[in-house]
Amino acid sequence: MAKFRMIHTDFWDDPKVVEEMTAEDKYFFLYLLTNSNTTQIGIYQITKKQMAFDMGYSTESVNALLDRFVNHHKIVAYNPETREIAIKNWGRYNFNRGGKPVLDCVKAELKNVKDNSLISFVGERIEKEDIKNLYDSFTTRIEDGEKNETLLNQGFDDTSTISGQEKEEEKEEEKEEEKEVANRATLINQFITLRGHGFAHSPKDEDAAAEILAAVPLEEALSLLKQRFDTFEPKHHRDRINSLGYCVGYILDKFMENQGEGDADSEKRSKVYKHGTGFGRPAAKNAEQAIREAEAARRAWGG
User: Whole-model pTM?
Assistant: First the structure.
């Protein structure tokens, strides 16, 4: 049987949608509410690659959009380990009818949720009392079950201890990778905001973000990016910053200038040159060569 999802016309009158969302945000939000992976409960499994494929976007673009919806709009939660996404206002758009068939369907689907916190995330905004009570009671039941399962599985088997350590290491690596992806998405999102036109970015922008963040901490990169836009002096009315690559040389130069003298400065510079080798540069670059290359790159981008 074909599935369908209901979207009220007042979606377009919602102040958050009208005032805070870009056209790309609205497109992404409608996709999250209506794609074929959606369930009756507003929590479902979907990979970032699947989202990118369905929408015709790059994975980096999806990462940037997810970052906006999770950290800026705060109406979506996503677990990268279980690949589950939750829509906070799901109940507002879909739970207009109740009754035993709906409750049975909700109960069956809640059993399949792997990340228990997502149930609470969606349940907070459900208005129909019988369905909200089901979310609340199911959350409590799962939490108690998880505690009991943990106690039953405690043991002293060395093999399981080693396996657990390996899993923890894998999780740490995945978290670090997710953090790097999120940082790149944050930097690109800031660039799009400062640019002031368009809603998409290019693969070259993704490469530029990776190059910057391999040498500069995120907070400093964001600050220096804003500084680049604030100090930019257009030569004519059509002269503007169109690519993040244009800002790379400026950000790296300013970051190096801000480090000052001493061991800390040497360590940061070494990090910049080490990163440079990943872009096909010789490993034995000295400071003067790196600065000259950064200046040449800026001139190539029209700086």
Answer: 0.49
